[in-house]
């Protein structure tokens, strides 16, 4: 699955003269994930165990996000976002579970529709904001257990996100921001050799980003 078509659609909408105030943002940061439980069956053989997740934000492909926001006025905005989060099962989990690979590392890929509230002040370049969104998890699945090897993109379930941060205006068009961003996704993966795997994943991230406003 490619994200080129939806991203192209976002750029087309952003170029529309009918839209007054738009903000295109890109960010990276440090992302982690607490442990969770994994259950399912491998070609009819059940499994159920806990997994310790690692984020490895700087490893290729790195953690990042893309966001497009339509600000309706000085307070409220809405938009769309693709968050390329990552999770890897640690070595102890793999050894104890019998899995060779268990990771969503070419993106946990949370695609969401977001709403935002900001607090602008005429005499300050600093603008605090909060936001939340709902959407889908579309991870690149890399799971191998025994001879069952699953590799590729899947739509695995619903996702919710929340963020809080502050934006600093450099010029009328450019700004930088820092934020906390959290997510929850409920994932059901179809295993190619038969069976499935279910896990709920929470991520926590500290992001630094750059925005272009027009």
What does this structure look like?
The protein is mainly beta and 214 residues long. The protein has a single domain, classed as Porin. 8% of the residues lie in helices and 63% in strands. It contains two helices and 15 strands. The strands form two sheets. An eight-stranded antiparallel β-barrel has the order 1-5-6-9-10-13-14-15. Strands 4-7-8-11-12 form a five-stranded antiparallel beta sheet. Strand 2 and strand 3 form a beta hairpin. The protein is elongated, with a radius of gyration of 19 Å. The two termini are 30 Å apart.
| Strands, total number | 15
User: What is the overall shape?
Assistant: elongated
Distance between the termini: 30 Å
User: Going across the major beta sheet, what is the strand order?
Assistant: 1-5-6-9-10-13-14-15
Report low-confidence residues grouped into runs of 5 or more: 12-19
Keywords: Signal
Organism: Parasulfitobacter algicola
Protein name: Outer membrane beta-barrel protein
Pfam families: OMP_b-brl
Which secondary structure elements does this structure contain, and how are they paired or packed?
Elements: H1 4-14, E1 22-32, E2 36-42, E3 45-51, E4 53-54, E5 64-71, E6 76-84, E7 87-89, H2 91-97, E8 99-104, E9 110-118, E10 126-137, E11 140-145, E12 148-153, E13 157-169, E14 174-190, E15 195-213
Antiparallel strand pairs: 1-5, 1-15, 2-3, 2-15, 4-7, 5-6, 6-9, 7-8, 8-11, 9-10, 10-13, 11-12, 13-14, 14-15
Summarize the structure.
This protein is mainly beta.
């Amino acid at each position: 699955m490619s994200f080129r078509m939806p991203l192209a659609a976002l750029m087309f909408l952003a170029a529309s003269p009918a839209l007054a105030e738009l903000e295109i943002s890109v960010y990276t940061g440090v992302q982690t994930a607490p442990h969770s439980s994994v259950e399912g069956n491998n070609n009819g053989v059940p499994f159920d165990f806990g997994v310790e997740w690692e984020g490895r934000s700087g490893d290729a492909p790195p953690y990042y996000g893309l966001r497009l926001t339509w600000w309706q006025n000085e307070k409220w905005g809405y938009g769309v976002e693709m968050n390329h989060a990552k999770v890897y099962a640690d070595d102890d989990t793999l050894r104890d579970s019998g899995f060779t690979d268990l990771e969503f590392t070419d993106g946990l890929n949370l695609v969401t529709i977001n709403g935002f509230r900001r607090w602008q002040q005429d005499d300050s370049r600093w603008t605090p904001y909060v936001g939340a969104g709902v959407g889908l998890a579309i991870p690149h699945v890399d799971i191998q257990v025994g001879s069952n090897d699953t590799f590729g993109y899947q739509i695995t379930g619903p996702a919710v996100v929340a963020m809080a941060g502050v934006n600093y205006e450099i010029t009328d068009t450019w700004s930088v921001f820092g934020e906390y961003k959290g997510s929850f996704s409920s994932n059901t993966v179809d295993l190619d050799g038969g069976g499935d795997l279910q896990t709920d994943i929470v991520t926590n991230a500290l992001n630094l980003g750059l925005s272009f406003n027009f």
